Amino acid sequence: MREVLGRLSTGIGQSALKHTLAAGHQCTALCRDPSKLEKVFPPESNANLRIIRGNAHDVAAVAQCLQSDNRVVDVVVTTIGAKPIPLKMTVDDPDVCKKGAATLLEALAQLRRSGITGAPHIIACSTAGFSRFGRNIPLAMIPIYALFVKVPGEDKVVMEDQIAKSGEDFTIIRPSHLSDGESSKPIRVGIEDPTNGPVSEVVGYSISREDAGRWLANNLVLQMDAKYLNKNVLITY
Questions:
Q1: What are the DSSP calls for the chain, one per residue?
Q2: Which residue in 3, 4, 169, 230 is deepest, having the highest Cβ count within 10 Å?
Q3: Per-residue pLDDT tens over the stretch 182-203
């Protein structure tokens, strides 16, 4: 049984949580409003789920979630993001991901200074469209990403760099444009080394939040494929 911490309440994170709980693993979820998550995962039928009220930018709250007895949890999944403001082509917090990554890493450092041991696998949700090694979205999507995803995309690039340079084990997951619903469509995967560039390449238009979360749980949490360790991973239909 693995100990999993997730900073999540909707979308990809919620889907990953659902599949991880269904496999019988212990999970801790950090969210600002626990009641929203409890409506989806009632406490009486989810004994392996611990929900902690808190903000992903609060070092103390994150440290509380990271600790399990005298060690750090096995896996950390972070899918935090900002709310879009379409008319202004920006988001309500342009630094949400970089602040979240800095908070997570500081919380880990504080726990280790206090004698808590452990090295979690950090799984962070970013986005396609901002690779330094070339285009990984269709040509038709470039104007959309340039107009509406530029601000949050730049924030996620900084987050990726913070985690990749931290010395922690990590996987950055980069879904293509997110849609709703669950499907049986095959998911294609591209792998990029943060230093040396693409290992395998795919380009696609979209993937649903539910399917992306299921893929995350199955391939990075429930069983970890070594080829994704310390890599950026693009997933798309």
A1: --EEEEE-SSHHHHHHHHHHHHTT-EEEEEES-HHHHHHHS-GGG-TTEEEEE--TT-HHHHHHHHEETTEE-SEEEE---PPEEGGGTEES-TTHHHHHHHHHHHHHHHHHHTT-B---EEEEE--TT--TTS--S-GGGHHHIIIIIHHHHHHHHHHHHHHHTSSSEEEEEEE-EEE-S---PPPEEEEEETTTEEEE----SEEEHHHHHHHHIIIIISS--GGGTTEEEEEE-
A2: 4
A3: 999 999 999 999 999 999 999 9
